[in-house]
Structure formats: C-alpha cells, structure tokens
Design a protein that fits this description.
The protein has helices at residues 2-20, 26-39, 44-55; strands at residues 72-77, 82-87, 92-96, 101-106, 120-123, 129-137, 153-160, 166-173, 179-182, 188-192, 200-204, 210-212. Residues 144-149 have low confidence and may be disordered. The protein has three helices and twelve strands, in the order αααββββββββββββ. A four-stranded antiparallel β-sheet has the order 1-2-3-4, with no helix packed on it.
Length: 213
C-alpha cells in the first residue's frame, strides 16, 4: 500500500508539473507529459496530461500568400525565422513568413517540367543547404488517367541557401517522389520511391554518389 501511495504521489507531481508549465514552457511541459505517459500508460492522469498539452496548442495562426503562384512546397530554416519555398512554376526562394517578403531568390537551374505533383524540400539543421526532390514524370493511374499515378522518376538537387546557387545536381533518379530526408549535417540525403517497390537510396549531398539501400 505504501508503494502504491508513493507511485500515486509521483504521478500526481509529474502531471502537476506538466500542467503548471503548459503556458510558460510548453516544450518542457510536453516532454514531461510524454514521459509520464510512457511510464504510466494505463493511468488516466498521465493520459489527461498528454492530451491537455496537445489540445492546449495555439492552433491555426493565419495565412500568408505568395504572389504569382497557386501552390508552394517548403521547409523552415532552423533558428532563422525564414522559409525555403518551391513554387509551382519550379522557381524557388527564401521568404519571410511573417510578411511574405522574398529575401533571396534561389537558382535551381532548368526545371524538369514536372507533372504538377508537389516537390519535397528539406533543410539541414545548420540552415546552410536545402535538398529538393522534384517529380519528372507520372504514369497513368489505376483507372488509366494520365498523370494520375505516382511519379516514376525524379530530379534531386542541393542549393546553397546563403549564395542562392546550386551546390549539386540536378541528378535524375529512377525513383518517384515518395520521401526525402536530410541528415542533420546536410551531408547525406535519403530518397524513398513513391511506388510500391521498397526502394531507398542514399545520395552524398557533396559528391552526388548514390548508394542503394
């Protein structure tokens, strides 16, 4: 009984800490709530604390529209307050999301004239480079509609975010735009195929060397 009471007191203190920090230190409150749920997943108090952290988010903050484009893909540059975007006309830029102001245009070279599918954009943790994976073609979908299937090939490139100039590529890959991940140091990119084949390749972001996984 004493052990049960001690554990209950620990749960109460942990949940109370998460609740108290929810307004001032939301990231810390989230970590505490997640840890309490990991340790006591069957306890209603830990479940309530975790749910409370997520439902206490600010939610939707507003819109910023980029002139001259109907659709964009992008990624946040860490610790900068800026965003890398790729427009639907296959041009790219660094913008300030608060105002929508273009800080710097990026030179991606000649676009592949893709099929209207969105590209994937990833930024290194130090904010130096961005990796971009753009679709080149798309076969017919399951009902024979042209361009309705997943992209069969893609174009991979790396751009320097300080100079705005390409650092690597474009490199044509025999993979659709399924997934893209960039290592924290920006040296290696992992590309996953969009099709049902379990194919992944690693691309050296400096030399362009490709390793099948």
């Amino acid at each position: 009984e004493a052990d049960r009471q001690r554990e209950a007191a620990v749960i109460e203190a942990t949940v109370a800490s998460a609740s108290a920090l929810r307004r001032s230190e939301r990231d810390v409150a989230t970590l505490i709530a997640a840890e309490s749920f990991r340790r006591w997943p069957d306890d209603a108090r830990s479940r309530s604390a975790l749910l409370g952290v997520f439902t206490g988010a600010d939610g939707f903050l507003g819109n910023r529209y980029v002139p001259g484009t109907d659709a964009i893909s992008g990624a946040v540059i860490p610790d900068s307050g800026l965003v890398v975007i790729v427009r639907d006309d296959e041009t790219a830029a660094v913008i300030e999301p608060e105002s929508g102001r273009v800080v710097r245009e990026l030179d991606l070279g000649e676009g592949p004239n893709g099929v209207g599918l969105p590209p994937l954009v990833r930024v290194s943790s130090d904010g130096r480079i961005a990796a971009i994976l753009r679709p080149i073609d798309s076969p017919a979908g399951p009902y024979g509609l042209p361009g309705a299937g997943p992209a069969g090939t893609s174009q991979f490139l790396v751009v320097d975010l300080q100079s705005g100039l390409p650092r690597l590529g474009p490199i044509t890959l025999d993979l659709g735009v399924g997934g893209l991940a960039l290592s924290p140091d920006g040296r290696t990119a992992a590309v996953a195929d969009a099709r049902l084949l379990p194919r992944v390749v690693l691309v050296d972001a400096e030399s362009g060397a490709i390793l099948q996984v």
